[in-house]
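Justification of computing resources. Each target in the renewal requires a structure prediction run like the one illustrated here; the chain below, 117 residues long, is used simply to show the kind of job we budget for.
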Amino acid sequence: MTTAIDSHILRSGTSRTAKFEGGDHGSQVSFFLVDNEPGQGPGLHVHPYSETWVIRSGEAEFTVGREKLRAGAGAIVVGPAGIPHKFVNIGAGRLGLICIHANTAIVQDWVEEEAAA
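Resulting structure tokens:
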């Protein structure tokens, strides 16, 4: 069955970021719809599958393993499976991006900053 899901119901608490778990809706992919203020972003973490980021607005700095990469609106960045990564909004305005997880559920392990150095 095909359904339309309002992204507002995928948000928890006061967060502007929506979380879509594909398996709950018959999809083979999961994603976050991120809406971050300057300076915001998740801490270092890792997934057992690749993650693809589609930057819709703003500018972000990605750390993937030991590499750092800056990317802005219209860019697509791919992080390989098993490599710790994070991103932060480095722009003056809001960061809008889609974090696509190649899995029916989001599997995320948090990593200590010291372990990535």
